[in-house]
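As a warm-up, study this chain.
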Amino acid sequence: MLRDLQPHITDNKKKAFFFLVALSLSLVVAGSTARYGLLGPMLVLAAAMAGTFLFAAFNNPRIAFIVYFGYCFVLGFVVKTFLKIPVGLAMDAILLLTWASILVNMKHFNWKALKNEHVLLSLVWFGISVLQVFNPYGGSFVGWFNELRFTALSWLLIAPIVFLLFNRMSDLNRFIGFIFTFSCIATLYGVKQLYVGLTYGEQQWLDLGNSVTHILGGKLRVFSIYSDAGQFGASQAIMAVMAMVMAMGPFSYKYKILFGLIALFMLYGMGISGTRGALFALVAGLAYALFLSKNFKILILGSAFALGGLGVLKYTKIGDEIFQIRRLRSALDPKDASFNVRMVNQKKLAYLLEDVPFGAGLGMSGMNGTTYNADKPIANIQPDSYWVKVWVMYGVVGLLIWFAINSYIIGKCSGIVWQLKDPKLKTKMIALTSGTVGCFICSYGNEVMNAMPSSVIMFMSWSFVFIAPWLDKETQQLKVDGDHS
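Now compare it with the structure written out below.
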């Protein structure tokens, strides 16, 4: 009997393995339940899920990154649900796990694909950021490290991902579908916040001092599952730009209607956020999309509509009874109190940075500044702008380098878009490029491109545009092969 059992087990190794694992888990769950009650099996199941994820991630790094990408969207919600737990570190851990898996499976990837300007410039910016640890201004090392994670390290680690893991047309389509789906979920959750109410954690987050910026005139500025209303509103404006571009593309009427509905939904999400800076993401993104299209009739018509809309906001009182419209209108008012406070703060910063051409160092501005460098006067002046924050941390020299890097990448993407032959692919690339332009311009008013999920979308969008020539060649070759068949 034992002789017959051995070859049977050999032929059914996987079944035997899973049987032993299931049996072991059952025994562990039973024992932990007897000793710890309900908490026991929950911990065992959590450990089993973590083990399964690790196994899957090391077999396929794409799985790890997809989980990371999804986590970037819901990070704000998770933070507000577990206010006393540093859940943001889990995001970094998953990204590092992705790279650990890539290195374990390195023979499966085309590393020559990383020889491009996007990856190179992200490395240059990371190097400049690392050197800021020697800044003589005397900032906190912890503050420097925490700022480095978002300002430079995430860019360096995300930029190569598309070239290595997601370099097919199907990956591009899934990426676009993924960000639209999560953005729609975010708007739906925002509607829930506005009309149903907040969770206990969200209300507690407001009570910790965030109500000052998120409750205006008794009205909630919706922040949805994102870090704050500024990130939510700007992200929805960027998604609206992309959806509008897609709706005008050479797709079937079914998809045109779908993208048009998504654009309207995103505009609604932008509106309930009460984020004034999102207006500039919308206008800049659409203007750049029209510029990339090289359709001068649409460009002139679109510009006329945009200027007309801005004129209504600037010179009329139409819709003033609606809170969200009043907020947008105030963005165009040079006498707005918030705008004047920003100008005053920038004058103070200019005085403090007068003899500091390389800035005060990473972690010396924004949340990390007030948390880790509160003893420094410059750290207690809010930048209210990512452009200003870069100026404070890197100085005028660093700001010029950073601006040049971003401008070069956008210019390179524009040149690539103009060279594409496949009309559908070209429309997708116009959508991604114009979305990043909107994100970049909008970051003058808020810290958008340095926060999740906008930063990861921006970096991945640039990488997708950089691989567009490969995808275009494949598409053209398929058409040629189809004609010859």
